[in-house]
Every structure is written in structure tokens, then in C-alpha cells.
Amino acid sequence: MIERGFSEQQQRRIAGYLGIAQRAGMIMAGDMAAQTAISGGRACLLVVAEDAAERLREQFAALAGEREIPLIYWPDKQSLGAIVGKSRRGALALTDAGIAAAIIKLL
After folding, report:
1. Which residues, at least 6 apart from 53, have a Cβ–Cβ distance to it below 8 Å?
2. Fewest CB atoms less than 10 Å from the CB: which of 18, 42, 57, 89?
3. What is the pTM of this model?
4. Which ranges in the chain belong to alpha helices (H)?
5. From CA 60, how far away is CA 90, in angstroms rounded?
6. Residues of the chain with pLDDT under 70
7. Radius of gyration over alpha carbons of the chain, in Å?
8. Contact (Cβ atoms closer than 8 angstroms) between residue 48 and residue 90
9. Using CA atoms, how far apart are residues 80 and 88, in angstroms rounded to an integer?
10. Which residues contact 70 (CB under 8 A, 6 or more apart)?
């Protein structure tokens, strides 16, 4: 499952869920951290910034497809990082299945 282009309301709700997950320690933020979560079998949902490098977007799309991990595209790296209280981030991996399911249900 690959999703792009959310309504403003959906974006706010997804951002809220991601913020909760970050506070609970269930987000691996950044390209390398997300890849670690995927290779370790911990990633339940991937979030990749639309303005991340094309190579990175393609790499995460391929990994998500291979491992059957839902993937959503976020509008930009700056706001993706801000959601989790970090600087710009090209990718995040959510490691909690319950929150991932709640986000997927919104879509």
C-alpha cells in the first residue's frame, strides 16, 4: 500500500499519531534509522518525504514492497522532522502496529 496526497485534516491526525509514537519511543527517524527498522523487522509503517532524494524514495518504495510494509509519502522533510521534534528527516519508520493500523484506517 502506497498513499500520497492527504487532506489537511488527515495530515493533522497523522501528525498527531506520529507525535504520540515519538513520545512513546516508537519512531525511528532518519534514513538510516528507518532502514535499520526495516532490516530488523520492526517497521510497521514507513513515512517518506516527497522532497527526499529520488534514489531514497525509490529505495524505500522497493523495500516496502518486498517486505509488505505500508508506505505513505509526506509533503516535505522539514515538516516530517518537526512532527517528531527533530531537524529535517527524509524518512521515518513507525514500529508500533496499533498506531500504524490507526493511521492506515484514516486513509
Report:
1. 90
2. 42
3. 0.92
4. 8-23, 31-39, 54-67, 77-83, 97-106
5. 10
6. 1-3
7. 12
8. yes
9. 7
10. 1, 2, 3, 44, 45, 46, 64, 100, 104
Q: Helix 31-39 vs helix 54-67: angle between axes, to the nearest 10 degrees?
A: 20
Q: Give the list of residues 6+ apart from residue 100 with CB closer than 8 angstroms, or none.
A: 44, 45, 70, 94
**Nearest-angstrom CA–CA distance, 29 and 43:** 11
Nearest alpha-carbon partner for 83 in 20, 13, 15: 15
Helix (H) or strand (E) holding 27: strand 27-29
Q: How many CB atoms lie within 10 A of CB 96?
A: 18
What grid cell was written down for 99? 498506531
Letter for the amino acid at 98? G
State pLDDT tens for residues 16-32: 999 999 999 999 999 99
Question: 55-60 contacts: CB < 8 A, separation 24 or more?
Answer: 56/31, 56/90, 56/91, 60/34, 60/91
Regarding beta strands 91-94 and 27-29, do their DSSP bridges make them parallel or antiparallel, or are they unpaired? antiparallel
